[in-house]
Specification:
heterodimer, A: about 110 residues, mainly beta, about 0% helix, globular, B: five-stranded antiparallel beta sheet
């Protein structure tokens, strides 16, 4: 079974803090993704990566950056957290012949 | 980005009833996926469909890939309390291959929230 692991289930941060969300997958997938999920807005793609050190902006990249130094790990960075970034963050990965699998999510609260 | 039209948005049903939900799009997709999300958890893949007209089952769940490639349906038979959650559809344009430029993005529906009354 594909396993996508997000390092934290719950995080509480203060406005202006730098926040790191970590994600690791164990299936040697090429592609990794960060989504945020908000009530009424569905899943929105923040950033994705199709290879090590490669990254592409999704639909809502503003206020976020990402890092993919190793194939199995994809990090989402909030340079200066703001209250409108309070959300559920979902990491996912996919590979050839293997559709998107999600992690369990990180619920981030920015106060 | 584009969203799929998923309906209904929510439904309340009695335990034991059958459930139907669907997704439609103005664009053609070559793969349809159905996910379920339990409260506080990440979405879990239920069924993947790769061929127009395909009908695939996973236990009490049955999903169909519409013949026009612009829609898909998910049915749940004899619902039970643990069926509660949000069901998402997702469309993918390039079929089974999830690698290569432009092939890795999915388009999601906004979800159907299912409540089951015991």
């Amino acid at each position: 079974d594909v396993k996508v692991t997000q390092s934290s289930r719950y995080l509480v941060k203060r406005t202006g803090e730098k926040v790191f969300l970590e994600c690791v997958q164990d299936m040697d997938h090429e592609n990794m993704f960060w989504y945020r999920q908000d009530p009424g807005l569905g899943l929105r793609l923040i950033y994705f990566s199709y290879d090590v050190k490669m990254k592409e902006k999704g639909d809502i990249p503003e206020g976020y950056s990402v890092s993919r130094e190793k194939k199995e790990r994809f990090s989402l960075i909030l340079e200066s957290a703001s209250t409108n970034q309070t959300s559920m963050y979902l990491c996912a990965s996919s590979g050839y012949n293997s559709p998107l699998h999600f992690g369990n999510g990180t619920r981030l609260t920015v106060t | 980005g584009q969203q799929l039209n998923q309906s209904p948005q929510s439904m309340f049903i009695q335990e034991g009833e059958d459930v139907s939900m669907n997704c439609t799009s103005s664009s053609i997709f070559n793969t349809w996926l159905w996910y379920k999300q339990d409260p506080g958890e990440g979405p879990v893949l239920l069924i993947a469909l790769y061929k127009a007209g395909e009908l695939t089952s996973n236990g009490r769940l049955t999903a169909q890939f519409g013949i026009t490639r612009k829609d898909s349906f998910l049915n749940i038979s004899a619902s039970i309390p643990s069926d509660v959650g949000i069901y998402f559809c997702a469309g993918h344009r390039k079929g089974r291959s999830y690698s290569g430029a432009g092939s890795y993005q999915l388009t999601f529906g906004k979800g159907t929230k299912l409540s089951v009354i015991p």
